[in-house]
Design brief:
Elements lengths: L2 E3 L6 H14 L10 H9 L5 E8 L4 E8 L4 E9 L8 H17 L4 E3 L9 E2 L7 E2 L5 E2 L3 H8 L3 E12 L7 H12 L2 E5 L8 H8 L2 H9 L11 E5 L2 E2 L1 E4 L13 E4 L8 H15 L4 E7 L5 H6 L3 E11 L8
Helix pairs in contact: 6-7
Length: about 325
Amino acid sequence: MEFIQIPKDSPEILKAYRLFRNAVRDGDILCKEICREEFQSKFIDRENGIAKVNIIEKEGWAFASGCIDQKMGKSYITMVTVERSKRRKGLGRKILYKLEEELSEIDHKSDFEISFFNPMSLKWLLPEKNGVEHPNMPGVDVSSAAYLFFKNCGYRDFAMQNSYYISLNHYEYPSEMAANKKKLLQDEFTLERYHESLHSGMADMMRKFGNPLWEKEILEEPSIDHGGRPILVPVYADRVCGFTGPLDVEKTGRGYFAGIGTDPDFRGHGLAKLMFCELCSELKKLGAEYMTLFTGEQNPARNIYEAAGFHIVRSWADMRKTHKEDVLR
């Protein structure tokens, strides 16, 4: 049994794509099916700051893909799939270990992660809701065979994530939130769309959260001053004291959602619940049909989403393998 790295413009790319496509169609992976060209762009083609590694069994029976986020210095496993007739023969384990070896040769580390931080993100579909999709998979679906596979290969849970869904067609702004909004206005808080020319404190606040994905989404994207997407912010004396958004509707009808946060200096005023209800209401007005999001099992933010009528539709495990947890091979 021979494993090889897939070079650019090689015939093995088509073999890998067929394995990926069949795994999606068979329901082994919840991600959205993509065309051959998009597969090459996402998995094979070079991308600044990302070292991609793709391994295939020479006969085309198994495929494994991973990458290294060179800025963060972290290695990720993106997927492992084996042709159905060749499963339960140790092929999946062997190709995963080969992928780990190749990743280790590049960054000289033996730690690997499966999580939403993987820059090679894949959209996933909610089977129970026709046409509903989410921009990225936040880990390993705990109801899938892959979850036990990775556990048996030495991967351990380090966080649990829940995916939430709501239809916005019948969403109504809660009456208690309207009363809370009135009280906050009396306390001189306002809800506005962020303009860096009008508001202060956004960058300092975002860094307090310590979330690199939020910083990238909010700080690196163009602001509304420069034609970017609107961000909802509560404001006190021209100072930003929270954020949610951006206000954007995807082609699928999904209301976009990057996250929600309240500056620690302004917590206790009920700003987060108000911001989130305002976001849902505004997205509905813009034509959004539904929203999806995910958050940690222990994250208090789940109370905000559940209070707004969101319900859990999938649970995922963020998994990690370190050199201390290597299994016997």
